[in-house]
Design goal:
The protein is of the alpha/beta class. 41% of the residues lie in helices and 15% in strands. 47% of the residues are buried. The structure holds pyridoxal-5'-phosphate.
């Protein structure tokens, strides 16, 4: 079966967060303007027509679907009893922060990075420590020297790690992961590896699960993931984490239990099982389409916006654009885009100070919308540039 990712689907007046501003083309928050896997919609329709929505167990097939997925997609052996279901990656990360730290502890993040990492630390009893990525001519690397130095502080207890990285689009190599892992083990820093984007990795790159590096790394980490980015299910709120470290599992579960966050809704359960069991073919088509969108964008920028640097996209559908040449704060650019062109992008400052010369553009939309978005970006860019 082929899938029509070109189909324009009206999402206005559906309560969509992304489409919440009238008459604005939204290319910001990380969800897609595509219908999910047809089999998922069929399963949810069947569930809806049953008409009874009482409390629901998370069945063994939920855990089987996750273990099978990681085995076939990422060559990783996960055991069913290492997995805990949660209504989101961020609630699970927040619970892990609470479970594994005490007041005054410190947590490392690697900006520019997913903005909710900052919020999670801010809302906890911990202090934020920034290990900025190194940026050199369009390339992002880990600053290992700085990481080693910061991890050596005995108050540092956790690394919140985006693997692959949002918004830099990097897929970390095995060598990079090993180096991070060694530093963290050496200094007793637990790695919370957020692998929510691990399925959206393009050809030529391979996602390496942090926990696959070896026993010591596995015991010093927790992996968080979800089918939500992969299959566009974010509104269903389904996620999970796994670790073979029983003590970590127990402590995080205690926090989730304390906050009554251990039960999933029935649509969430069905959507995970069916997407992981039936969604592979759809996912491969999606990745091809997204990559073609990315190529369209790079060609367009090369011709029409040569001063704007497109950061190579190894993973995710979130393109990171270097606007240093404009010499304006990122929020000034996004405010102007919104006001003059009715185009909604994320300002890089959202992802930390290190992101302030950047914009983040979500290209998970039909090509027609991408083309329109790029035209609007070009218009405003030129308006600023020619001043
Ligand atoms: C790195 C990362 N982690 C977590 C999330 C959100 O996960 P959830 O909606 O399951 O809380 C996102 C969403 O964009 C993300 O990019």
């Amino acid at each position: 079966m082929e899938y029509n990712f070109d189909e324009l689907i009206d999402r206005t007046n559906t309560g969509s967060v992304k489409w919440s501003k009238p008459d604005v083309l939204p290319m910001w928050v990380a969800d897609m303007d595509f219908k999910t896997v047809p089999e998922v919609t069929e399963a949810l329709t069947r569930r809806a027509s049953h008409g009874i929505f009482g409390y629901c167990e998370t069945p063994p097939s939920f855990y089987d679907a996750i273990t099978n997925w990681w085995k076939k997609r990422h060559a990783l052996q996960v055991e069913n009893d290492w997995i805990i279901a949660t209504p989101g990656v961020m609630p699970a990360l927040a619970a892990a922060v609470e479970a594994l730290t005490s007041k005054g502890d410190k947590i490392i993040v690697q900006p520019p990075v997913y903005n909710h990492f900052f919020l999670t630390v801010k809302q906890s009893h911990c202090e934020l420590v920034e290990n900025n990525l190194l940026y050199d001519n369009g390339n992002y690397q880990i600053d290992f020297e700085d990481l080693e130095q910061k991890a050596a502080d005995p108050a540092v207890k956790l690394l919140l790690f985006s693997n692959p990285h949002n918004p830099a689009g990097r897929v970390w190599t095995k060598e990079e992961l090993q180096q991070i892992g060694e530093i963290c083990i050496r200094h007793g820093v637990v790695v919370l590896s957020d692998e929510i984007h691990s399925d959206l990795v393009y050809d030529d790159f391979t996602h390496v699960p942090f926990t696959s590096l070896g026993e010591a790394y596995a015991r010093n980490s927790i992996t968080f993931s979800s089918p939500s980015k992969t299959f566009n299910l974010a509104g269903l709120q389904v996620a999970y984490f796994f670790t073979e470290n029983e003590a970590f599992r127990k402590r995080v579960k205690e926090i989730l239990t304390k906050w009554e966050m251990t039960m999933l809704n029935i649509f969430a359960i069905d959507s995970l099982i069916v997407s992981y069991e039936k969604g592979e073919h759809w996912l491969e088509s999606l990745k091809r389409y997204l990559h073609e969108n990315y190529c369209y964008l790079t060609d367009f920028c090369h011709v029409h916006l040569p001063e704007l640097k497109v950061i190579p996209l190894q993973s995710t559908y979130l393109v990171w654009l270097d606007c240093t040449a404009l010499g304006l704060p990122s929020s000034t650019i996004t405010d102007r885009l919104l006001e003059h062109e009715h185009l909604w992008l994320n300002p890089g400052i959202k992802f930390g100070q290190a992101g302030d010369q950047f914009l983040r553009m979500n290209i998970a939309c039909p090509r027609e919308l991408l083309k329109e978005g790029l035209k609007r970006l070009e218009k405003e860019y030129k308006r600023i540039w020619n001043k």
